[in-house]
Each structure stands twice: as C-alpha cells, then as structure tokens.
Design goal:
The protein is built from five helices and four strands. It is an alpha+beta fold. It folds into two domains: 91 residues, no CATH class; 42 residues, no CATH class. A two-stranded antiparallel ribbon has the order 1-2. The chain starts with a helix and ends with a strand.
C-alpha cells in the first residue's frame, strides 16, 4: 500500500511539474512567451530541439509548402531558412521615420490594388448566388 501511495505521489509531482509555466524565447524571432513545460517539450520535439513560437512555426510550414513546388525540403531545412531570414531581418537598422514609412507602404499597396485589373462579375443562369460589384453576394431570383 505504501508503494501505491508513493507511485501516486510521484505521478502527481510529475504532472504538477509538467503544468508549471516557464518563460521561453523563440530561437527565430526572439519573442518571449510563458508556456507550460509539457507544451515546450512538444514544440521542441517537432522543431529539432529548438523552441519556436507559433507564428514562426506557421512560417516554417509555409516555407515547406512553397519549396515543395521547386523541390521537397524537410522541416529542418525550412526551419534553418526561416531562422536565417529572421537573423537578417533583426540585423537591419530600424527606419528613421517608421510612421512615414508605414504610410508610404500602405499607399503603395492601395495604388497597386487600384491598378490591378478588375474581374467582371460572374453570373449564374439558373438562379442562385450572383457576384455583385461589391464584396457581398446578391440573390438572383
């Protein structure tokens, strides 16, 4: 009976340890998050022993998908590519006038979207949904 109580106590201690929260830093972008030990372990297991935040994890998945059109790459190579990108990005100096640069970037996006060719609305002949000139659908009767 003493062995059973001791085993339960050990299992409870391990479970409590796994639910502890630790501060962990993304090895790609440097973002710091509070995560449980169990979650940190799962993320490191997926990423070759490196802790990667969720956003960088999605970027690595996108890198794998994008590269598969050229040639297949593994998760480790995609992770290395993303880490290299982040390192280069962090090495850049911050802009002198960040607000002005943001406004300029948004302006360029808007100009590009205005210059892009318009797609004519697609209509169905037998009722149903019809694409109007706006973003919203109209019902064809």
């Amino acid at each position: 009976m003493a062995e059973t109580n001791e085993a339960k106590s050990t299992a409870g201690t391990v479970k409590a340890k796994m639910n502890e929260v630790e501060l962990v830093k993304c090895e790609c972008c440097g973002l710091t998050e509070e995560c449980t030990v169990a979650y940190i372990g799962r993320v490191k297991e997926r990423n070759e022993g490196r802790w990667v935040c969720g956003l960088c994890g999605e970027a690595v998945k996108d890198e794998i998908m994008r590269a598969s059109a050229e040639r297949r790459i593994g998760r480790e190579e995609a992770l290395n590519r993303h880490m290299s990108f982040c390192k280069k990005f962090r090495a850049l100096k911050p802009p002198l006038h960040p607000t002005e640069e943001l406004i300029s970037a948004v302006k360029q996006l808007m100009l590009r979207s205005l210059d892009s060719p318009r797609v004519s609305p697609v209509r169905r002949t037998r009722g149903g949904l019809v694409r109007s000139q706006s973003c919203f659908s109209a019902i064809d009767s």
